[in-house]
Design brief:
translocase; 3 domains; Rossmann fold; globular; alpha/beta; single chain; transport; ABC transporter ATP-binding protein
């Protein structure tokens, strides 16, 4: 008889685990070792395909009991070997919320779903267990609602409640915020924090967003090519800039701002070289020219907006008292080598922003609208045989050359609006015209020649046996003369060459996202619609997406992205359309939308960490990039800008 789980042992201990999936020659995990203490809040980070999800499948026995590939090593859960426990037994101790959490919801109502697991185990108090789980997730008031009536955030919380209903000691959540609007994302993490601090659950998250890691987690485990590279406290982990950059993982925006300001100070007021020039954020310690008496900022750098407010606030208050604020760099780092640096401060972000914003009125006069909505309404019938309006009287014009970000909370109607443009759905009332043609008079196949739609769920786009065939399908079915060349270019752009013979359905979530983007981009459409393209992507692949979109501008006349990624909106969009409860609640530039605090709150949005810091410090206008903030701060510290006390309403 196996011994019971021991509570004095670590929550998880993994030693020397190597694992390869059936049919795969290359192992996904390679001598991976990990030690997670009970009651901790741990983030597991790394690039797409590094083995994060596979590692977590060890915790509840899916590996090796369900995925029976080549396995060696030791896994202990609460002091007991997982080898001697079934998936069923381990699931009592390890609750798991998967990346595709929608697939975990199997019952019709919220309460049915909450007590499904304990009922399945034959536990006599299954109703009470389900009710307690709903209460912990703040869903008790929705207990009689049908699953399909819930928003995306509510569904995610319900999947969490389902995992909690068995009262596990350990909770694993794979990408908690990948498909949620910013307000629902915070709500999910607030629940996880309460479960950790109040209910003493060991919480493990797989996460790409450094800002959430900084705000909620205690320690971080970094993975690289199937190995656990290190496990460190969160502030040390997010200041491990060399490792993060090498693996394409972006630190928090406020950390990047401090790094950038330190480099500018050390460079004597000169902005450091861009990554394209061969420099990087980790070049700070080796920057050459003296700046502001040859000082650089003290480390560790801040990782949260709250820490950054104090950090930069002290700098503004007391920058005359240099020794308390700044560190002398090594003598050789302060050597006067200014001739090797650029002679002027590059304002690339501001220039790019002006180019992207352009003059919308001139553009609209020069080009006709590619897409026109005229009082467009979309309804569908519910299970109660009543009609539910998803979109209510949309009037919009989308013009050539625009980069449009479609934002709003879960359930606002973003995906529905994209489907009207792609002719996947037809308006119940009103009209939608694409390049002068009413969508009611054309088929989806006819529209797809000029309009590419990349689905929110990548698997919805997979119909072939391998990645190469998926990307090639649309081109070859239309007998495109440059099909082979274009397929290879897309595989290269999205780092899919090593995966081209793999079945796309068996790839990681981030890899599947890259395949879906390659499928849509390969057609070189005049209008491309992307539904949550950055969900599940590591930050390196996210940057590659932006580069690919820029390259596609030669062929693509207009790009519309429905997204919850506010950083993407700030970096990329020339126009932001805000949907709320099926209507257009806002339409304007990035700065116009994000200065409307009432609209931001009502639409489930949130400022980026950089804008949050700017608001906290009273920077006017609020900066949206770390580089811009760093230059602004240097202007104040060097006396080149008029500035007020840091505690005053604004800094100009």
């Amino acid at each position: 008889m196996p011994k019971p789980f021991v509570h004095d042992y670590p929550a998880i201990r993994i030693a020397g685990v190597t694992f390869a999936y059936p049919g795969s020659e290359q192992p996904v995990l390679k001598e991976a070792s990990l030690h997670i203490r009970r009651g901790s809040f741990t983030a597991i980070i790394g690039g797409n395909g590094c083995g994060k999800s596979t590692l977590c499948k060890l915790f509840n026995g899916l590996i090796p009991h369900y995925y029976s590939g080549d396995f060696t090593g030791t896994v202990e859960i609460c002091g007991v070997s997982a080898e001697n426990r079934t998936v069923s037994e381990l699931s009592r101790r390890v609750g798991y919320v998967y990346q595709d959490f929608d697939n975990q919801l199997v019952r019709p109502t919220v309460m049915d779903e909450a007590h499904f697991a304990p009922l399945n185990y034959g536990l006599p108090d299954y109703r009470a267990m389900g009710a307690r789980a709903l209460d912990m997730c703040g869903l008790t008031h929705l207990k009689d609602r049908y699953i399909w009536e819930l928003s995306g955030g509510q569904k995610h919380l319900l999947a969490l409640a389902g995992a909690l209903s068995l009262e596990p000691d350990i909770l694993v959540v794979d990408e908690p915020v990948s498909q949620l609007d910013p307000q629902h994302a915070r709500q999910v993490y607030d629940v996880l924090r309460q479960l950790n601090q109040v209910h003493e659950k060991t919480v493990i998250v797989i996460e790409h967003h450094a800002e959430f890691i900084a705000d909620y987690c205690e320690e971080v485990c970094l993975m690289e090519q199937g190995k656990v590279l290190w496990q460190r406290p969160v502030i040390e982990a997010l200041n491990s800039l060399e490792d993060l950059e090498r693996l394409g993982i972006q630190p928090p925006q406020v950390t990047k701002a401090a790094v950038q300001l330190s480099a500018i100070l050390l460079n004597g007021g000169m902005a450091p070289g861009s990554p394209q020039d061969g420099h990087s954020i980790t070049d700070v310690s080796s920057s050459h020219a003296m700046g502001l008496s040859g000082y650089q900022l003290k480390q560790p750098y801040p990782i949260t907006a709250e820490e950054a407010e104090v950090y930069f606030g002290k700098l503004l208050h007391r920058h005359g008292d240099t020794p308390l604020l700044l560190d002398h760099p090594p003598t050789d780092a302060r050597a006067d080598d200014a001739s090797s640096a650029d002679s002027t401060v590059k304002d690339t972000d501001s220039d790019q922003h002006r180019i992207l914003q352009g003059d919308e009125s001139e553009r609209q006069e020069e080009h006709g609208a590619l897409v026109e909505f005229h009082h467009a309404v979309l309804r569908y019938r519910t299970i109660h045989k009543t009609e539910h309006e998803v979109l209510r009287g949309i009037d919009l014009r989308l013009y050539e050359g625009e980069r449009i970000a479609l934002v709003g909370n879960n359930g606002a109607g973003k995906s529905s609006l994209l489907k009207l443009i792609a002719c996947i759905a037809k308006p119940s009332c009103g009209s939608v015209s694409i390049m002068g043609r009413n969508t009611k008079d054309v088929s989806m196949e006819q529209i797809s020649v000029n309009v590419a739609y990349v689905f929110q769920n990548p698997e919805d786009m997979f119909i072939e046996d391998n990645v190469y065939q998926e990307v090639a399908y649309g081109l070859k079915s239309r007998r495109h003369p440059e099909a082979e060349d274009r397929v290879h270019r897309m595989l290269t752009h999205f780092r899919l060459q090593p995966l081209k013979e793999r079945d796309a359905r068996l790839l990681s979530g981030g890899q599947q996202r890259r395949v879906s983007l390659a499928i849509g981009a390969a057609m070189m459409p005049q209008l491309i619609l992307l539904d949550e393209p950055t969900a599940n992507l590591d930050m390196s692949t996210r940057e590659e997406l932006l580069d690919t979109l820029q390259e596609l501008e030669v062929h693509v006349r207009t790009v519309v992205i429905a997204t919850h990624d506010m950083q993407l909106v700030h970096e990329w969009a020339t126009r932001v359309i805000v949907l709320n409860q099926g209507v257009v609640a806002g339409d304007g530039t990035v700065s116009e939308i994000f200065t409307d605090t009432e609209l931001i709150s009502r639409a489930g949005l949130a400022p980026t960490q950089m804008m949050d810091l700017s608001i906290r410090l009273g920077v006017v206008p609020a900066t949206s990039s770390p580089d811009e903030f760093a230059r602004h701060m240097y202007g104040i510290l060097s006396g080149k800008e008029i500035h007020c006390h840091a505690a005053s309403p604004q800094l100009v």
